[in-house]
Design goal:
By secondary structure, this protein is mainly beta. 0% of the residues lie in helices and 49% in strands. It is built from no helices and 11 strands. The termini are far apart.
Length: 121
């Protein structure tokens, strides 16, 4: 069992930066691939980035490539999403997920409750 708690969301102007954190509890954290997803009002939950259990392999969605970076610190049981050059279209609730693979949300077993990111123009 893994519990996930996201933090770091907020209101930022276009061009600004935020760093999201996802703190995980549970002894199996270091064995799980992790992902970040986002969901804008009225839209489906979309893949943002994922990272392997070791942290050596990462994948980012085309829409955020070059602007967002996923990373993890297994000693702290935490996954991060550094978001730079934010755009209004990045506005969404951001969710951390564990125990899955790929970019399909249905592949992930555990989810946090989300943190809201709002980018003003």
């Amino acid at each position: 069992q893994v519990q996930l708690v996201e933090s770091g969301g907020g209101l930022v102007q276009a061009g600004g930066s935020l760093r999201l954190s996802c703190a995980a509890s549970g002894r199996s954290f270091t064995t799980y691939g992790m992902g970040w997803f986002r969901q804008a009002p009225g839209k489906e939950r979309d893949f943002v980035a994922r990272i392997s259990a070791s942290g050596y392999s990462t994948v980012h969605a085309d829409s955020v490539k070059g602007r967002f970076t996923i990373s993890r610190d297994n000693a702290k049981n935490t996954v991060y999403l550094q978001m730079n050059s934010l755009k209004p279209e990045d506005t969404a609730d951001y969710y951390c997920a564990a125990g899955g693979y790929g970019g399909d949300p249905s592949n992930y077993r555990y989810w946090g409750h989300g943190t809201q990111v709002t980018v003003s123009s």
